[in-house]
Design a protein that fits this description.
- Helix content is 43%, strand content 13%.
- It is built from 8 helices and 6 strands, in the order αββααβαβααββαα.
- α1 packs antiparallel against α4.
- The protein starts with a helix and ends in a 7-residue tail after the last helix.
- The structure holds uracil.
Length: 189
Amino acid sequence: MALDALKKECLECRRCGLCETRTNVVFGVGNPNAEVMFIGEGPGEQEDLKGEPFVGRAGKLLDDMLELIDLDRSRIYIANMVKCRPPKNRDPLNIEQEACSVWLRRQIEIIRPKIIVCLGRIAAATYIRPDFKITKEHGQWTVKDGIMTMALFHPAALLRDPRRRPETFEDLKTLQQAIRDYCTATYDA
Ligand code: URA
């Protein structure tokens, strides 16, 4: 309910210039009671067209990554740092991220996940720490606002550089163990 109301408000958002070029606002999808929330960077072309996060090639790889640890989209929530596609998939500007951060903050307040997983460097730098080094710190836990948080390589980065996949597999196993340790019945296989 609260999430639906927030979505309705977000779909009207004109807080930054990205509203001028978007086709759809990509609010987020998944289980409003999810204990695990994934945060990506921002919508790409396919996401902008469909209004859903991670529906392109990177999204297919994300689904495969989830399946490896017995997760799927119905059990988690997926959102992005910015809800509208930056033109030509450029990195979102700081002012755009700042303007958009209210929506993510409220999504987190409503969903109250036990675990947050940032996907990629930009999400980790914005959400965890500005000097976060994804190559060194992926798979490591920090507690942020009382929520266990980690970052994985972005699936698009794994498509570009498959040599990162074994490390990501290890990180996913770490995530699976944390889910077993800290999450409740929703995740019983
Ligand atoms: N990359 C992201 O970070 N988010 C999406 O929704 C799609 C691709």
